[in-house]
Amino acid sequence: MQKRLFFGIGMDDDTRAHIGQWLVDSVSASKANTQPNNWHLTLAFLAMVEESQVAELCDFASSLSVPKFTLTFGDYGYWQHNGIFYLKPEQKPQALLDLANPLRAFGEKCDLYHNPHPFSPHITLFRNCKPEPTIDKPIAPFSLTVKKFYLYHSHRNENGLIYEPIASFFLS
Ligand code: 2AM
After folding, report:
1. pLDDT tens digits for 132-153?
2. Domain boundaries, position 29
3. Does the chain have fewer CB atoms within 10 Å around its N or its C terminus?
4. Whose Cα sits closest to atom 21 in ligand 1?
5. Whose CA is nearest to atom 15 of ligand 1?
6. 122 annotated active-site
7. Is the CB of 26 under 6 A from ligand 1?
8. Please, which contacts does 128-131 make with residues 24 or more away whose CB atoms are closer than 8 Å?
9. Residue nearest (by alpha carbon) to ligand 1 atom 8
10. What is the model's pLDDT at position 159?
11. How many angstroms does the Cα of residue 117 sit away from the middle of ligand 1?
12. Contact 6 CB / ligand 1 (< 6 Å)
């Protein structure tokens, strides 16, 4: 049995509300935004993983020793080729790279997924959205204090796509 998995960073409800309000007030797009409950920052996409490999992934994630860090978001961007509109952090703290790089490398070593692109931290707000959304006013910058990250299971139920945290890992 296989599951679609990825490692990522979540956010609190206040942050979801802040982003959601900005979308309502200041962003016009040709389609609906991604589900606020699904908003996250992908650290490492793993694609399809055998049930029997999940423990190994969790052991590896637990073995990382990375201090807590803060991400500040105030910038946005758009990728023409896939119509992704996203928020991106103003900086890439070393601790963020020290999480993403080994997790991505481990997924490659296990032959789960070979990343075609360098790590580009972002929070996807629209997908397959063409033309590019128009922005009346930039988002008031906000910060996320990252104390943990998750292994997410991406699947569908009667409500659509859900990213369900199936394991959590605490930073030091
Ligand atoms: P996203 O980070 O731009 O939102 C589950 O599908 C998550 O993994 C989504 O957050 C998604 O994109 C990311 N993802 C999906 N396919 C991917 C791929 N081929 N490479 C990198 N990340 C991917």
Report:
1. 999 999 999 999 999 999 999 9
2. 2-170
3. N
4. 45
5. 45
6. yes
7. no
8. 128/31, 128/82, 128/83, 128/84, 129/29, 129/30, 129/31, 129/83, 129/84, 129/85, 130/30, 130/83, 131/30
9. 45
10. 85
11. 12
12. yes
Structure tokens of 82?
């896939």
pTM over 0.85: yes
CB of 39 shorter than 6 A to ligand 1: no
CA distance 119 to 101: 8
Mutate to test the pocket of ligand 1, among 3, 41, 42 (most ligand atoms within 8 A of CB): 42
Q: Following DSSP, what letter does each residue of 78-133 receive, concatenated? A: EETTTTEEEEEES---HHHHHHHHHHHHHHHHTTS---SS-----EEEESS--S--
For residue 90, what is the domain's CATH number?
3.90.1140.10
155 part of the active site? no
Per-residue model confidence as pLDDT tens digits over 45-94? 999 999 999 999 999 999 999 999 999 999 999 999 999 999 999 999 99
